[in-house]
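Sorry, explain these tokens?

***
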Amino acid sequence: MANEASFCHVFLSFRGETRNKFTCFLYEALRAQGFVAFMDKTDIRVGDEVSLTIKEGIRNSMSAIIVFSKNYADSTWCLDELVLILERNRNSRYFILPIFYEVEIRDIRHQLGNYGLALEKHKARHNDKIEKWREALVEVSNIFGEHVEGLQSTFIQNTVKLFRERLAAKFPECRLPTQQVPVLQGSSSSSSSSRHESSEDKIILYTTTSVTDVAGALKKILRSGNVVYEERNCSIEPRYLRELKDLVGNDKVRFPMVIVNGKDLCGEEEVEGFYDAEVKQKLIGSLMYHYYSQRFASHFQATMSNAMFRRYW
């Protein structure tokens, strides 16, 4: 924690309820693009005051992303973080990007619903802070932010892009991390490191137009585990097929196929970089079941007759 409290591009403020659903994936997406992000590692808070490490994280950051969720205001720590972030914003060159996760701006601005109930609950022990918290909620609700909508993986990619643009505009004199562009494979002379670059820190579902039913089932499994992934249709983009062959080997290509950090999910017991081990194990078990069940085996045999694709069991 001490090292993490040194310089960072962005401080992430969030309630623990979004950690494994959204915030950890945003954190990893920022890191994958070379940004230094501060994300508190624990949901256990002792005492009533924000820790020195959190204060240093805010003070030493260039910006803050605040993930507002339904129960954000239930945490006095989150409210104190918000006050500190806004003070930092008023007193120095800084920018704030609010993200609204399953919550409406009007609830934050006018302290409606859970936000109103939370502040009423806090009055008993923190009446001296209530007015400051209310003012902070009103102030931050007037800052342009983003609502989490659509496919979460796409939203996170767009958010990281927006973050880069706004950070560059705010600090034009600073050299930002080099933007990493996926490298698609078309040459056998590519090095091993560049060959896997397109799948670094990513979960990718490779599909074809002939396995839409099975791919749909896998998408439901991925979404049920709140897993951020990208779908690549090899029938529409032949370069994805070349990329997949480079990743797993020409003789091991099958469809649909889930790749995590350049490795076949069903071929690896441990996949480095997958944030939540419990979700990972649940996902692996579900995928293994669906891949090898008799229900899909006959369907695969019928749909995989096209000679351009090879599969194995």
The CA atoms of residues 168 and 176 lie 7 Å apart. The first strand starts at residue 10 and ends at 14.
